[in-house]
Design goal:
Strand order of the largest sheet: 2-3-1-4-5
Number of helices: 20
Radius of gyration: 31 Å
Strand content: 5-15%
Number of strands: 5
Order of helices and strands: HHHHHHHHHHHHHHHHEHHEEHEHE
Structural class: alpha+beta
């Protein structure tokens, strides 16, 4: 990765943070122009995220940018960026569920993102992984899967912990996001426990983040500082600890919580009404419901209405626990399914080259034979391919270089086949390519392209003085003749080798 690319990634993360309150569309467009010119698709994905967040701030639909992130992530094939994009889509679905019951399942998307992060091999960029982990935690929080959210914030902290001098500034910004989100999660969680009368459990939950102290410093955005201080005040009142100073409606709500905790229902109710819905900082849903529950107990409220609200709060809590258990099961099932898929892939894929192995080759032939939608007269072609003097490569350069040669050949062959074709390693240095539904003049031309690609490949990258060539035998005919084509292509390969190697022989 070039220095310019690294700087562009860091700038994109700055723009993502700025989009949440201090959006700079012109800066995003300048960054987009540079990323497009340089082919930095990962940077463009991050810029779509910045635009998405700016849309949310402005109350504008951001679907276009979320979909663009997904399309780019699929193109890049980076599991961390794909998990990030899917998690962001899940978060939007989760937010919309308050307004509608249609659309994709946010929970199903969350499961997919979680398992994708499992599959990441740890070689990706730490910033992208941390971003994806944070987004997964946000979705889990929004859906009420608080235990999962807490786990993923902790995973993010572990990911960011090793020193990364090159990315130190961006890591500090991501750590700030984890910090403020963890306070928000703890306040939501503790408020719901307080709402069902579980004050001791609520206090314990509140103290999990109060023990951290005040994480803010001069580098924090002022708005975030105010939010953290307000949340710390409310958490301290839930815990029954000495609250940090607060003013205005936040202080009124804190006083209401303190009175409710001490059993002074009437005083608590009056203070909760005084605080109102807008206390000057964003409140999580659990805290809003706690205020409403306290306010509902003001003098004159029908006791049956109070009982109704209390029982609903308990039902919501129990439903959350059931859904959390279901989410754990869904993640476990998806992990097992992915593991089984990987085992099946391992059975039919050659580990060294990434092409099909002999089992995969046989499965392909069996699939063709059993497909009733294919005509027996459909045109097929077979290439049999051998590396010229491969034993000499192993003898002169070592078996490690020999393995690298085979791996490179696998990459070259993969570039010259379509999804309906097959490229397979049958064993050793023997490869086969089956071309489906091709005109008679195509197979020989394709074989020549492969031959030229091998001949011109920079083999010196692997070992000084290394040269590699292949011999290719080609035969074509109908699907019905496919078993004979394989034999005939093998015979053509013999002629190519006998005629001097490094050539194509087609019958």
């Amino acid at each position: 990765m070039s220095t310019g690319h690294e700087a562009a990634i860091e700038h994109a993360y700055q723009l993502i943070e700025a989009a949440q309150g201090h959006d700079d569309p012109a800066a995003v467009e300048r960054a987009e122009h540079e990323a497009r010119a340089c082919g930095w698709e990962d940077v463009r994905l991050l810029l779509h995220m910045a635009r998405s967040l700016a849309c949310l701030e402005a109350g504008v639909d951001d679907t276009e940018h979320v979909n663009a992130m997904l399309d780019t992530a699929l193109l890049l094939g980076d599991p961390d960026l794909l998990a990030l994009s899917i998690a962001l889509k899940a978060l939007r679905c989760a937010s919309r569920r308050r307004l509608a019951t249609t659309g994709e399942s946010a929970a199903a998307l969350l499961v997919e993102a979680v398992v994708l992060l499992d599959e990441a091999d740890g070689t990706g960029l730490v910033l992208h992984r941390a971003n994806a982990l944070i987004e997964v935690a946000c979705v889990a929080h929004e859906l009420g899967f608080w235990e999962l959210a807490q786990e993923y914030y902790q995973l993010t902290e572990q990911t960011l912990a090793p020193p990364q001098p090159r990315w130190a500034e961006t890591i500090r910004r991501q750590a700030r996001v984890v910090s403020i989100n963890s306070f928000d999660l703890a306040l939501d969680w503790a408020s719901c426990l307080a709402g069902i009368g579980q004050w001791e459990e609520a206090a314990a939950r509140a103290r999990t983040v109060l023990a951290v102290g005040d994480p803010t410093d001069a580098e924090w955005p002022p708005g975030w500082v105010g939010e953290v201080h307000g949340m710390r005040h409310l958490l301290a009142t839930i815990a029954g600890d000495e609250p940090v100073p607060a003013e205005g409606r936040v202080a009124a709500l804190g006083a209401a919580i303190t009175a409710a905790r001490e059993g002074a229902a009437e005083t608590a109710a009056l203070l909760a009404v005084q605080a109102g819905d807008d206390v000057g900082i964003p409140l999580p849903t659990g805290t809003k419901l706690l205020r409403l529950g306290i306010a509902a107990k003001r003098p004159g409220t029908n006791p049956e209405a109070i009982r109704y609200g209390d029982e609903l709060a308990v039902l919501r809590w129990n439903d959350r626990l059931d859904r959390m258990s279901g989410m754990r099961d869904a993640i476990a099932v998806e992990r097992r399914r992915r593991d089984h898929e990987q085992l099946r892939r391992d059975l039919v894929v050659d580990e060294l080259t990434g092409l099909a192995n002999r089992r995969g080759y046989q499965a392909y032939l069996s699939g063709l034979g059993g497909d009733v939608n294919l005509s027996d007269e459909q045109a097929y072609a077979v290439m049999m391919i051998d590396v010229d003097h491969f034993k000499a490569v192993n003898d002169n350069f070592g078996h490690d270089v020999g393995d690298l040669v085979l791996a490179r050949l696998g990459q070259i062959l993969a570039l010259h086949v379509r999804p309906i074709d097959l490229a397979a390693r049958l064993g050793g240095d023997e490869f086969v390519v089956i071309l489906a539904d091709v005109h008679t003049d195509i197979p020989t031309a394709r074989a020549q392209q492969i031959l030229d690609a091998v001949r011109t490949h920079p083999w010196d990258d692997l070992a000084v003085g290394l040269k590699v060539s292949v011999s290719i035998g080609v035969h074509h005919g109908s699907r019905r003749e496919l078993p004979a084509l394989l034999t005939d292509a093998d015979r053509s390969l013999y002629h190519a080798k006998h005629d001097g190697r490094g050539r194509v022989w087609a019958d």
